[in-house]
């Protein structure tokens, strides 16, 4: 029999129950027992859904109040000292509030402390909390939560397979702190605790533990490859079967490492890397299970069950009951249930499968391979084939004019008419900005009031005209505040946007959007990625009326605000019937029209955000350049339709930029605002070494903390920046948008920022006066 299972299920809840309960708990509106009860109910519902669908095992250990990597840090007792939790660690019972303080710096109980760093999980839009590692670190089994959840599942009659980030990937994702050392030196200490965990799970009667090791799909130094052997030799035991799970790509040069490990089973991604199947099957040990990730865990398209059955049948014949089937990765990265989408048109809906539907697809496929398909399975197979045929032939997907326009674009279209140095002169004249001009990244606080108005508008309670008036009031308020703060280049504040990608998705043809298609982005925060199903066009201007109105309220330059083509692509569910680069260029052309319209409406500076440019990089370095070429070209295509005097800005944040600095320069944006404050301007070394030619606004304060940034500190940061980049090419701005902050925090922070810029100007004027006097 073919075992069917999943690597993990979305934990946030079909109605975002976990988000709502957790946020209420943080606010003090819900007690801990009720929060725990909500979580317990969700876990039970999710296990029930897996069992009802017919899966052979249910996934335990995929639940987290905040993040699954943080869960392992807590399990291992890797709680940084500043959280004052040594006693909790020693007692083997780290409190939930301690984990929340690690994640967010504060919790209903305990002293606030600087939160742990958060960063993107591989190439996803999910963020994990970075384990902090230091040379003297010790580890101990410091939480019983995992074991409690196993007991909970067993008591409810489920057969659990436990899922956990594996030891090598946990270290791989960690960051060394303090004195220099190699984090791999900690491996043996980490393994001692993993061994205890496995022993304890075996005592509970757990048969299978899935250790997630996606690090194996990346380029690994030799010592990290060897670490896998060391780790899994140490962890092998007679009483516990380990399923080593790899996903998000192929094993590539780690193939022999992975297939030599003494584990009972291996899971590989057959969606991202179908080409690896035959070589994996050839190398897998004669008694090992091979779990094939055949249902796409990263996208929402319905699976082609007939084609999969045909492809998998020979493997079934070879592997027999050693073949397992699963989605490619955890279903954390897709929304919960397409059936909740009552407003989505029936044809489009029939093309989609969310987490709930992917359970059914996995089970049906397993039963088809076993020749034990039920009538319902046969029906599902027929429905899938019909839907896919319909999708392939659908007139709504292809718009010939889009292909024609794309084919007619040439290299000239992705180039500004003149070089930066010449454009800069025209822009200086048009914009008349002071030295060290101040600006912000785009969004101002998304207050409850704004969201309530939007909700009322969506439900029909508030008419479009009234809603637009409300948004205009917000824009006017943001402009007035910025004027009072004496900021030099203003923004309209993005009040009208639910999200920087969803907002554009709602207005572009070729995109569909959902009502409940939430996916966890970090902690309790979710995003609702639009679905790109067809050729992309812009039926009407999307932002022009807001920017035009905002500009009418001030003499200062108003910056237009768009999300760039790569970020829209990266944060959407993208059609799988044409190359991603083609879809990206289509989006770029739609945005190009918007950029040109903004210019015609009198907007002299336009920011095209690309925070996801780095995240889109393939996980293997060998594939980077091809991606960067089309990503950069798409950005330039969107930006290059304007005259010299129009200043193009871009913005990037919370990514590792050093290794793509050449591509950032190739964007040829006149100004880039970039997150740097947490790295103490070190990032600018890369810009200096590269001789970055255009203007830069290195973020001078971290918008994720409510703490007030100090004027002197910002001045000193900018002085460090000026050692690397000439002052006349520097801007002063925060790290990122201010939508998650409150006005009470934003105003004093920006007042200090403006004061810092004025101090810098005064110092520059004084030093110039001194130079003149000494000549
Ligand atoms: C910059 N970031 C972004 C990423 N990805 C994106 N797609 N967008 C981003 O901005 N990736 C990297 C980072 C991640 N950062 C964040 C930061 C903040 C959030 C966030 O606050 N998410 C909100 C949801 C935002 C939103 O869409 N709000 C809606 C209201 C939604 C709502 O609650 N609706 C009602 C129902 C309405 C109805 O249809 O009837 C409800 O459910 O009750 C809005 O403003 O209109 C969050 O709350 O999680 C995300 C990522
Ligand atoms: N313009 C956006 C960029 C976020 S990365 C904002 O300010 O929120
Ligand atoms: Zn940002």
From TrEMBL:
<comment type="pathway">
    <text>Amino-acid biosynthesis; L-methionine biosynthesis via de novo pathway; L-methionine from L-homocysteine (MetE route): step 1/1.</text>
</comment>
<keyword id="KW-0677">Repeat</keyword>
<feature type="binding site">
    <location>
        <position position="571"/>
    </location>
    <ligand>
        <name>5-methyltetrahydropteroyltri-L-glutamate</name>
    </ligand>
</feature>
<feature type="binding site">
    <location>
        <position position="675"/>
    </location>
    <ligand>
        <name>Zn(2+) 1</name>
    </ligand>
</feature>
<keyword id="KW-0479">Metal-binding</keyword>
<keyword id="KW-0486">Methionine biosynthesis</keyword>
<feature type="domain" description="Cobalamin-independent methionine synthase MetE C-terminal/archaeal">
    <location>
        <begin position="437"/>
        <end position="758"/>
    </location>
</feature>
<dbReference type="Pfam" id="PF08267">
    <property type="entry name" value="Meth_synt_1"/>
</dbReference>
<feature type="binding site">
    <location>
        <position position="494"/>
    </location>
    <ligand>
        <name>L-methionine</name>
    </ligand>
</feature>
<feature type="binding site">
    <location>
        <begin position="525"/>
        <end position="526"/>
    </location>
    <ligand>
        <name>5-methyltetrahydropteroyltri-L-glutamate</name>
    </ligand>
</feature>
<dbReference type="InterPro" id="IPR038071">
    <property type="entry name" value="UROD/MetE-like_sf"/>
</dbReference>
<feature type="binding site">
    <location>
        <position position="653"/>
    </location>
    <ligand>
        <name>Zn(2+) 1</name>
    </ligand>
</feature>
<feature type="binding site">
    <location>
        <begin position="441"/>
        <end position="443"/>
    </location>
    <ligand>
        <name>L-homocysteine</name>
    </ligand>
</feature>
<dbReference type="InterPro" id="IPR013215">
    <property type="entry name" value="Cbl-indep_Met_Synth_N"/>
</dbReference>
<feature type="binding site">
    <location>
        <position position="19"/>
    </location>
    <ligand>
        <name>5-methyltetrahydropteroyltri-L-glutamate</name>
    </ligand>
</feature>
<dbReference type="InterPro" id="IPR006276">
    <property type="entry name" value="Cobalamin-indep_Met_synthase"/>
</dbReference>
<feature type="binding site">
    <location>
        <position position="736"/>
    </location>
    <ligand>
        <name>Zn(2+) 1</name>
    </ligand>
</feature>
<comment type="similarity">
    <text>Belongs to the vitamin-B12 independent methionine synthase family.</text>
</comment>
<dbReference type="GO" id="GO:0071265">
    <property type="term" value="P:L-methionine biosynthetic process"/>
</dbReference>
<dbReference type="GO" id="GO:0032259">
    <property type="term" value="P:methylation"/>
</dbReference>
<feature type="binding site">
    <location>
        <position position="653"/>
    </location>
    <ligand>
        <name>Zn(2+)</name>
    </ligand>
</feature>
<dbReference type="GO" id="GO:0003871">
    <property type="term" value="F:5-methyltetrahydropteroyltriglutamate-homocysteine S-methyltransferase activity"/>
</dbReference>
<feature type="binding site">
    <location>
        <position position="609"/>
    </location>
    <ligand>
        <name>L-homocysteine</name>
    </ligand>
</feature>
<feature type="binding site">
    <location>
        <begin position="441"/>
        <end position="443"/>
    </location>
    <ligand>
        <name>L-methionine</name>
    </ligand>
</feature>
<feature type="binding site">
    <location>
        <position position="120"/>
    </location>
    <ligand>
        <name>5-methyltetrahydropteroyltri-L-glutamate</name>
    </ligand>
</feature>
<feature type="binding site">
    <location>
        <position position="494"/>
    </location>
    <ligand>
        <name>L-homocysteine</name>
    </ligand>
</feature>
<feature type="binding site">
    <location>
        <position position="125"/>
    </location>
    <ligand>
        <name>5-methyltetrahydropteroyltri-L-glutamate</name>
    </ligand>
</feature>
<keyword id="KW-0489">Methyltransferase</keyword>
<feature type="binding site">
    <location>
        <position position="609"/>
    </location>
    <ligand>
        <name>L-methionine</name>
    </ligand>
</feature>
<dbReference type="GO" id="GO:0008270">
    <property type="term" value="F:zinc ion binding"/>
</dbReference>
<feature type="binding site">
    <location>
        <position position="736"/>
    </location>
    <ligand>
        <name>Zn(2+)</name>
    </ligand>
</feature>
<dbReference type="Pfam" id="PF01717">
    <property type="entry name" value="Meth_synt_2"/>
</dbReference>
<keyword id="KW-0028">Amino-acid biosynthesis</keyword>
<feature type="binding site">
    <location>
        <position position="651"/>
    </location>
    <ligand>
        <name>Zn(2+) 1</name>
    </ligand>
</feature>
<dbReference type="InterPro" id="IPR002629">
    <property type="entry name" value="Met_Synth_C/arc"/>
</dbReference>
<comment type="function">
    <text>Catalyzes the transfer of a methyl group from 5-methyltetrahydrofolate to homocysteine resulting in methionine formation.</text>
</comment>
<feature type="binding site">
    <location>
        <position position="615"/>
    </location>
    <ligand>
        <name>5-methyltetrahydropteroyltri-L-glutamate</name>
    </ligand>
</feature>
<keyword id="KW-0808">Transferase</keyword>
<feature type="binding site">
    <location>
        <position position="651"/>
    </location>
    <ligand>
        <name>Zn(2+)</name>
    </ligand>
</feature>
<feature type="domain" description="Cobalamin-independent methionine synthase MetE N-terminal">
    <location>
        <begin position="4"/>
        <end position="316"/>
    </location>
</feature>
<feature type="binding site">
    <location>
        <begin position="16"/>
        <end position="19"/>
    </location>
    <ligand>
        <name>5-methyltetrahydropteroyltri-L-glutamate</name>
    </ligand>
</feature>
<protein>
    <recommendedName>
        <fullName>5-methyltetrahydropteroyltriglutamate--homocysteine methyltransferase</fullName>
        <ecNumber>2.1.1.14</ecNumber>
    </recommendedName>
</protein>
């Amino acid at each position: 029999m073919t075992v069917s299972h999943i690597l993990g299920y979305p934990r946030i809840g079909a109605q975002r129950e976990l988000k709502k309960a957790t946020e209420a708990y943080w606010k003090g509106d819900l007690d801990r027992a009720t929060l725990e009860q909500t979580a317990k109910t969700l876990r039970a519902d999710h296990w029930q859904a897996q069992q009802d669908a017919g899966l052979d095992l249910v996934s335990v250990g995929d639940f987290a109040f905040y993040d699954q990597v943080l869960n392992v840090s807590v399990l291992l007792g890797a709680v940084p000292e500043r959280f004052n939790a040594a006693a909790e660690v020693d007692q083997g019972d780290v409190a939930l509030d301690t984990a929340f303080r690690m994640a967010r710096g504060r919790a209903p109980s305990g002293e606030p402390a600087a939160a742990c760093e958060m960063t993107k999980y591989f190439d996803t839009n999910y963020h994990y909390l970075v384990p902090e590692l230091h040379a003297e670190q010790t580890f101990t089994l410091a939480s019983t939560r995992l074991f409690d959840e196993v007991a909970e599942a067993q008591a409810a009659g489920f057969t659990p397979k436990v899922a956990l980030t594996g030891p090598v990937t946990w270290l791989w994702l960690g960051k060394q702190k303090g004195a220099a050392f190699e984090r791999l030196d900690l491996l043996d200490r980490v393994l001692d605790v993993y061994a205890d965990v496995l022993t304890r799970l075996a005592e509970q009667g757990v048969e299978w533990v899935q250790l997630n090791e996606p690090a194996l799909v990346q380029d690994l130094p030799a010592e990290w490859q060897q670490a896998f052997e060391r780790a899994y030799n140490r962890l092998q035991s007679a009483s516990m079967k380990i399923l080593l799970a790899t996903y998000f790509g192929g094993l590539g040069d780690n193939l022999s490492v992975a297939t030599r490990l003494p584990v009972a089973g291996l899971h590989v991604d057959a969606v991202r890397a179908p080409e690896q199947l035959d070589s994996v099957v050839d190398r897998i040990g004669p008694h090992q299970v091979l779990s094939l990730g055949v249902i796409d865990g990263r996208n929402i398209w319905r699976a082609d069950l007939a084609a999969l059955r045909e492809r998998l049948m020979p493997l079934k014949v070879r592997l027999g009951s050693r073949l397992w089937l699963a989605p490619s990765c955890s279903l954390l990265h897709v929304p919960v249930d397409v059936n909740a989408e009552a407003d989505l048109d029936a044809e489009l809906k029939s093309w989609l499968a969310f987490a709930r539907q992917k359970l059914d697809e996995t089970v049906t496929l397993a039963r088809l391979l076993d020749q034990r398909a039920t009538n319902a399975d046969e029906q599902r197979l027929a429905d899938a084939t019909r839907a896919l045929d319909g999708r392939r032939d659908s007139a709504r997907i292809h718009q010939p004019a889009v292909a024609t326009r794309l084919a007619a674009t040439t290299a000239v279209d992705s180039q500004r008419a003149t070089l930066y140095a010449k454009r800069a002169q025209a822009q200086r004249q048009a914009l008349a900005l002071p030295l060290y001009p101040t600006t912000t990244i785009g969004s101002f606080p998304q207050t409850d009031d704004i969201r309530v108005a939007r909700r009322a508008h969506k439900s029909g309670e508030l008419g479009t005209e009234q809603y637009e008036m409300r948004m205009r009031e917000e824009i006017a308020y943001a402009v007035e505040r910025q004027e009072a703060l004496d900021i030099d280049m203003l923004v309209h504040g993005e009040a009208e946007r639910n999200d920087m990608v969803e907002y554009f998705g709602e207005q572009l043809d070729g995109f569909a959007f959902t009502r409940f298609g939430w996916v966890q982005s970090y902690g309790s925060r979710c995003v609702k990625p639009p679905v790109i199903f067809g050729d992309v066009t812009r039926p009407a201007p999307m932002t022009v009326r807001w920017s035009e109105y905002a500009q009418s309220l001030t003499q200062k330059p108003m910056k237009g605000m768009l999300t760039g083509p790569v970020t829209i692509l990266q944060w959407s569910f993208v059609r799988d019937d044409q190359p991603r680069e083609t879809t990206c260029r289509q989006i770029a052309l739609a945005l190009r029209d918007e950029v040109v319209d903004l210019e015609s409406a009198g907007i002299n500076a336009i920011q095209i955000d690309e925070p996801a440019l780095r995240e889109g990089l393939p996980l293997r370095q060998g594939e980077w350049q091809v991606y960067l070429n089309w990503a950069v070209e798409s950005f330039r295509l969107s930006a290059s339709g304007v005259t010299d005097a129009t200043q193009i800005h871009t913005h990037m944040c919370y990514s590792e930029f050093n290794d793509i600095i050449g591509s950032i320069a190739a964007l040829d944006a006149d100004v880039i605002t970039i997150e740097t404050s947490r790295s103490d301007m070190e990032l600018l070394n890369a810009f200096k070494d590269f001789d970055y030619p255009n203007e830069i606004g290195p973020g001078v304060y971290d918008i994720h903390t409510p703490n007030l940034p100090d004027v002197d500190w910002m001045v000193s940061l900018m002085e460090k920046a000026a050692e690397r980049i000439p002052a006349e090419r520097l801007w002063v701005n925060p790290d990122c948008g201010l939508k998650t902050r409150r006005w009470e925090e934003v105003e004093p922070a920006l007042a200090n920022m403006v004061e810092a810029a004025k101090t810098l100007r005064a110092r520059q004027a004084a030093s110039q006066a001194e130079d003149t006097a000494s000549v």
